[in-house]
Design the sequence.
């Protein structure tokens, strides 16, 4: 039973990363927007939701004790607003500026999380974040399984909605802008507006993932939102298949499994005083796996499906 409880816990964390990957897939896989500030969006969602839903605390601002669902919605709004602000400032320029800006914002947000103790709890983090099905915490199996079902439902809803958007005229316009901006503009599309919309949607999804993860664990700290998280999510999307929502989910589960198993292996092999140094081997393992996947399947395990319209699919079969 304990093994099953841990498996449910592991899959829940993996699916929160799958949500982040779905957000990145909207930005990069569908639109070609290079976001290297993923950790900032995830952390913003986590802290906004935590501040709104935790009980009142004298030592910090916030603690409005709102319902978890309201915290998740507020996290999405905050992520979308941040992405919208970044998009308005940078998406009219070259993509290099977007990468630089998103990285800078992620670092700045991490410093804000760490130093504004009256708002975020500082380096000590925020505890007592309400957890779904908290009444079952004394029963780890039931608690983890129900949270797994809730997180899987979130992933499923996002997957269905994003697949519908992908096959809509809006989704096809995103791909047209990604492949040939000049041709898309000649057909009457507004590349800047489309990029801003996609970037805001991806930012909202990443922030939602941060909120879901925070409420499942019940505690957050600035150290959870370092640039390493950005590396992990990019590895997940590349391994799974950029441009494919199923690939994003598969890559998240696979890379998180390798990350968790390598961490457990390191803790078993190396003595306690060397484990901090040996933890860097996890990055090496992920890097080697990434190189192997790119050599074996350059477009990922589940490559992007080029025909996104059922009408185009039927036409291709007829010809």
Sequence:
């Amino acid at each position: 039973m304990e093994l099953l409880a841990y498996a449910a816990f592991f899959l829940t964390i993996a699916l929160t990363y799958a949500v982040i990957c779905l957000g990145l897939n909207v930005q990069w896989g569908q639109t070609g927007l290079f976001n290297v500030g993923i950790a900032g969006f995830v952390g913003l969602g986590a802290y906004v939701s935590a501040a709104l839903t935790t009980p009142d605390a004298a030592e910090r601002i916030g603690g409005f004790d709102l319902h978890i669902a309201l915290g998740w919605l507020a996290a999405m709004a905050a992520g979308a607003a941040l992405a919208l602000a970044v998009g308005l400032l940078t998406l009219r320029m070259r993509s290099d500026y977007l990468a630089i800006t998103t990285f800078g914002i992620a670092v700045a947000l991490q410093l804000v999380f760490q130093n504004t103790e009256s708002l975020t709890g500082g380096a000590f983090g925020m505890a007592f974040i309400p957890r779904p099905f908290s009444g079952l915490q004394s029963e780890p199996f039931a608690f983890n399984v129900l949270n797994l079902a809730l997180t899987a439902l979130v992933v499923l809803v996002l997957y269905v909605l994003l697949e519908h958007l992908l096959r809509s005229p809006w989704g096809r316009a995103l791909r047209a802008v990604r492949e040939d901006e000049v041709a898309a503009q000649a057909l009457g599309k507004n590349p800047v507006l489309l990029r801003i919309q996609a970037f805001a949607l991806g930012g909202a999804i990443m922030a939602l993932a941060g909120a879901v993860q925070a409420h499942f664990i019940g505690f957050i700290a600035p150290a959870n939102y370092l640039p390493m998280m950005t590396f992990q999510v990019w590895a997940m999307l590349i391994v799974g298949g950029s441009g494919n929502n199923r690939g994003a989910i598969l890559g998240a589960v696979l890379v998180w499994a390798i990350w968790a198993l390598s961490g457990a292996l390191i803790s078993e092999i190396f003595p306690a005083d060397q484990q901090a140094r040996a933890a860097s081997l996890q990055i090496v393992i992920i890097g080697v796996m990434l190189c192997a996947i790119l050599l074996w399947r350059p477009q990922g395990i589940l490559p992007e499906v080029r025909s996104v319209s059922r009408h185009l699919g039927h036409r291709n079969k007829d010809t």
Q: What stands out?
A: Residues 2-304 form a domain with the ABC transporter involved in vitamin B12 uptake, BtuC fold (CATH 1.10.3470). The longest helix spans residues 2-29.
